[in-house]
Amino acid sequence: MHFFGLVNLVFMFLSMHILLLKTGLCNDNEEMLPRIGIVGAGLGGTSCAFYLRQLLGSKATIDIFEASKVGGRTAVIKINGQKFEAGGSVIHNQNKYMVDFAEKFNKKRLSRSDGIFGLYSNGDIVFETSRWTAVTLSKLLWRYGLDAYKIHDWTKNFLSKKFNRIYEFQDGGMAFTTVEDMLRAMGDELLNMTHFSLKDVLLDIGVSEKFIDELAQGVMRNNYAQSTGVHGLVGAVSLIGAEPGLWSVENGNKEISEALLQESKANFIEANVKTVTLYKDELGTGSISYEVDYENQNEKSESTETREYDIVILAAPLEGTKFKIAFADFPGPMPPFSQKFHTTVAMFVLGKVNTTTFHLDNPDDFPADLFTSQPDSFFNSIGKLSPVDTAQPEHAYEPGQAVWKTFLNKNPNQEEISSLFESREDLRLVDWLAYPEYAPNMKLPPFQLYDRLYYINAIESAASAMEMAVIGSRNVALLAYNQWFGHFDKIDEIHLQTPSADNKNSEL
Q: How far is CA 20 from its chain centroid?
């Protein structure tokens, strides 16, 4: 063989071997695996660690930092000796990832009873469902015509089919660098919905203003503490979540995060991340790394420690939180966007509702869930809670007494509390930076903030829910993996068709 031909053959062999190492076919070589730091052990952070472990194998270094409790915005509160959901409380049967996790980890479902629903406006309960389905349907037809059917048909035959494309993209290893690219791949209509208010979107499909200003407004105030002025996509996701078939996990939805963390075998660090610093190779190779400075939460001293990573994944809101992260030595502002989060107050009361305020003869006549539609109402909703554990209450409830959760936009004063509850034995207030402030044409943040620096919570600009957090986390896991191993053909390929026959026949 000619000398140069032999050299070329050797070079090709070495190149192929290096490629095999980096594509994971030789994943046992730990030098080719990235060191990954994840900030936040909520559902987004723990599920991202879970997916990364699946992609990278057992020898990859994955650290996950958490300054508070595992589970993030999925949390429980203990009242009268029993546990109740305090944060993300319901899962829908269409939430593929959450359903899969519950089955994988053998978590028992607690079905949410479809009790009486009421709508409160101008000092009265203006609409109420019945224990009998036929009566409820008659009431809906009488007050809203076919609007409820139009919403159901639209979410089932249009929205869900478009939305479900993301699962097929992710099963195929596809990832997206921005929320905008992800939505465009799922269908231009979904992206367009972020440019218009929910009210405009519903009017466009023929829903009446009465339905929008009453029921749709009530749902939005309960789910997002906002109005039908939010952009259409988050509003549509909210309406899907108001349909029957809701459930939660026994002992709290936080158990999913705890199981994901354990399954990922990530190194859990109970610490408050203070600074993420960018380091560039001084030799000019273009190589970068990150230093993460953190304070341990389980130690009395407040000494700062440092760890170095090839990849950093942010799995918590970057603005408005008490755990503020600083960014050092980046060439431009970081983060390169503003994403304002909305504070919601959840008030938990063990007591009896005020029958005088709601014009009721008996507290037992109060609906299991009451939504408000008036924009100036000081509370958004009141719902009767069921415990998520099997523990017995510390003492039996009196007639008309229950544990209630009330959503508000700010802490209530004593007069407001008394107007809702005529008696109470226990009262707790929990405030959350629960979701972004939504508006048409709002900026959709990117999943990638800088080279190998990722932001899971960008997905919340489209919609905020437990399932959305997991969609965002799997996208970031795939994006980091594809970029590290050079699978650029699996990034932002927005024109690919999904294999589903239904999706192939859908208009794009």
A: 36
Q: Which residue in this structure is represented by tokens 């009465």?
A: 210
Residue 433 three-state SS: strand
Residue 203, Cβ neighbours under 10 Å: how many?
Answer: 15
Structural contact between residues 412 and 379, judged by C-beta atoms closer than 8 angstroms:
yes
**pLDDT at res. 112:** 75
Flag whether pLDDT at 213 surpasses 70: yes
H-only helix segments in 155-216: 160-163, 165-171, 179-186, 188-193, 198-204, 209-211
- Are 65 and 309 in contact by the 8 Å Cβ rule? The answer is no
35-39 and 61-66: which strand pairing?
Answer: parallel
pTM of the model: 0.90
Q: Are 221 and 371 in contact (CB under 8 A)?
A: yes
What element of type H or E holds 423?
strand 421-436
How high is the pLDDT of residue 240?
A: 82
Can you tell me the distance from the alpha carbon of 331 to that of 63, in angstroms, rounded to the nearest whole number? Answer: 26
Please give the pLDDT value at position 20. Answer: 44
Q: Average the pLDDT over each of 22-31, 100-109, 120-129, 366-375 and give the range with the smallest value.
A: 22-31
Give yes or no for residue 505 having a pLDDT over 60.
no
Amino acid at 351: G
Confidence check: pLDDT of 341 > 60: yes
Place of tokens 């959901």: 85
Calpha distance 475→247 (Å, rounded): 25
For residue range 281-296, list pLDDT tens digits in order: 766 667 899 999 999 8
Q: Which residues contact 322 (CB under 8 A, 6 or more apart)?
A: none
Over residues 236-265, the pLDDT tens digits come to: 998 987 777 788 999 989 999 999 999 999
The answer, yes or no, to whether residue 9 has pLDDT greater than 60, is no
Q: Which residue has the higher pLDDT, 352 or 155?
A: 352
- φ/ψ of 136, rounded to 5, equals -60, -45
Give the end-to-end CA distance of the chain in Å, rounded to a whole number: 55
- Ranges of beta strands (E only) in 437-492 are 448-450, 453-455
Question: Rounded to the nearest 10 degrees, how much is the dihedral formed by the CA atoms of 458, 481, 484, 294?
Answer: 60
Which own/partner contact pairs does 139-147 have at CB distance under 8 Å and 24+ positions apart? 143/210, 144/208, 144/210, 144/211, 144/214, 144/215, 145/208, 147/207, 147/208, 147/210, 147/211, 147/215
Paired strand residues for 243: none
DSSP per-residue letters across 27-80:
TT-GGGSPEEEEE--BHHHHHHHHHHHHHH-TTSEEEEEESS-TBTT--EEEET
Name the nearest CA neighbour of 251 among 456, 88, 443, 109: 109
**Quick count: other Cβ atoms within 10 Å of Cβ 100?**
12
Name every residue whose Cβ is closer than 8 Å to that of residue 119 and which is 6 or more positions away in sequence: 125, 126, 127, 128, 214, 215, 218, 370, 371, 372, 373
Helix (H) or strand (E) segment spanning residue 125: strand 124-128
Closest by alpha carbon to 49, among 253, 259, 261?
Answer: 261
